[in-house]
Amino acid sequence: MALYSExxxxxxxxxxxxxxxENADGVGEVGNAVCGDIxxxxxxIDGGVISDVKFxxxxxxxxxxxxxxxxEMIKGKPVEEAMAxxxxxxxxxLEGLPPHKLHCSVLAEEAIKxxxxxxxxRRSQS
Length: 126
Known about the structure:
Blueprint: H1 6-13, E1 26-31, E2 38-46, E3 49-58, H2 61-74, H3 79-83, H4 87-93, H5 102-125
Antiparallel strand pairs: 1-2, 2-3
Helix pairs in contact: 1-2, 2-5, 4-5
C-alpha cells in the first residue's frame, strides 16, 4: 500500500494557490517546532467571501499538499464557512495522510484560522 494517496501526490507535485497576496485582508502564519514546517496563508476577502487565497509553505510534501488542499477548500467560500474548516476535512479531502503526518493538516487549519482572525481584527480597527 502506498504511503500517500494520489490526491496528496497531485497537490504536492502541482500545488494550487502558491504565492503571496500583496495588501492581503488577512495573513496567518503558524509553525511546528518539532518538524520545522512553517505555513503562511494570505486572504483577499470581498463582501464577506474569500475571493483569493495564497500560501507559502516551507516543509514536507504533506505540508505542501495540506496547504494546497485547504486553500482550494475555502476559495470562494464565505468567511464563516472557512472558519469552520477542520484538519479532519483537509485530511479526508486528501484521501488520508499517514498518522505521523496528520499534524500537517492541523497546521493548515490553524493557519487559515489565524488569517481569518487577522482579517476580523483589521476590520474592527478600521
